[in-house]
Specification:
The chain is globular. It has one domain: Alpha-Beta Barrel (TIM Barrel). It has an eight-stranded parallel β-barrel with strand order 1-2-3-4-5-6-7-8, surrounded by five helices. The protein has helices at 3-9, 30-43, 62-75, 90-103, 120-133, 149-155, 171-180, 196-201, 216-227, 231-248, 262-273, 289-303, and strands at residues 13-16, 47-49, 81-86, 107-110, 137-142, 161-166, 186-189, 206-209. The protein has 311 residues and is of the alpha/beta class. Helix 2 (30-43) crosses helix 3 and helix 10 (231-248) crosses helix 11.
């Protein structure tokens, strides 16, 4: 796909998709995954990022990742864009990229570096070598300080770097990064609906969603309101969705680690909405009964909200 077309396709809501597992977590339910994706596509989803954090990347094998990406390609229509998550050593990234390309994917998303010791020159080299090794579009995922403004600027002019997923809650830093990055990349707000309005004003022409796995109509309505500069409606929808997003940011019961509820909320929401969510894999845990009850109340409020009835 031409790079300018691919950059344009990332000006959208990027569905970071969850993976349904069997009751004991041992198997990926590929038929159920395909059914989930078909329903999301019918609801209007066109941009999908499988094998990201919502897709429990680090709990999957390479074989599962490849089949998950292939399922996305097969289960969605010709208008869909698929960007599969990759991470690890350069040979591993190259192998996954080749397999994703063979499966029909359009791009890869390079996960935020999971390495204790990182040098910014070495990280820039890493991205450059990934670009050298694949013909797919490349999305840079920034979730922490390692992927600095300098690193993004360094790689932004590579032809196959099509987008940056900026998942740090710092609008001022995002604004400066957009202003100082020379390449023509598409900017995705990587912290989803809670800050969609603020990041859009500063240059994000798309955002990623986990909530869209079970409420695609709601997040697409928010995106359309922002794109139409209908800020009153956009803020109303954002406030409606915020309790769910705030619950995802919580640590869960008997835990101090941040955002452990993130994926379990998505999966329970899918079960509520008639999709197949199912359990999470270690090192995640399912929602507590109390948090399930809270999510059920928030989801009911979204389903009955008048603001979503008309555009």
């Amino acid at each position: 796909m031409a790079r300018d077309v691919l950059r344009e396709r990332f000006r959208d809501v990027a569905f970071t998709t969850a993976v349904p597992f069997s009751a004991d977590g041992s198997d990926v339910l590929f038929d159920d995954l395909a059914d989930n994706l078909e329903k999301q596509y019918e609801a209007g989803a066109r941009l999908f990022i499988p094998c990201g954090n919502t897709g429990e990347y680090y709990s999957l094998t390479d074989e599962e990742r490849i089949e998950i990406v292939a399922t996305h390609v097969e289960a969605t229509g010709d208008e869909a864009t698929i960007a599969g998550g990759v991470a690890g050593s350069l040979p591993e990234v190259s192998r996954l990229s080749d397999a994703y390309e063979d499966a029909g994917a359009d791009a890869i998303m390079v996960m935020d570096p999971d390495h204790t010791y990182v040098h910014k020159r070495g990280l820039a080299n890493y991205y450059h070598r990934i670009c050298d090794a694949t013909d797919l579009g490349v999305v840079i995922y920034k979730r922490g300080p390692a992927v600095s403004r300098d690193v993004i600027a360094d790689v932004s002019e590579r032809e196959n770097v099509v987008a940056v997923k900026y998942a740090v809650d710092d609008v001022a830093a995002f604004s400066r990064t957009v202003a100082e990055t020379p390449g023509e990349v598409t900017w995705l707000n990587g912290i989803a609906e809670r800050y969609a309005c603020s990041f859009a004003i500063e240059g994000a022409t798309g955002y990623t969603t986990g909530l869209g796995n079970f409420a695609p109509e709601a997040t697409l309505a928010l995106f359309e309101a922002i794109r139409a500069d209908d800020w009153d409606r956009a803020r109303s929808i954002q406030r409606l969705l915020r309790p769910i997003e705030d619950l995802r940011a919580e640590s869960g019961e008997e835990n101090e680690l941040a955002a452990a509820n993130n994926v379990p909320v998505v999966k329970h929401g899918m079960d509520l909405a008639g999709y197949t969510g199912g359990p999470v894999r270690d090192p995640l845990v399912n929602l507590s009964a109390a948090d399930e009850t809270r999510l059920e109340k928030y989801y009911e409020a979204v389903q009955s909200a008048p603001v979503l009835e008309t555009a």
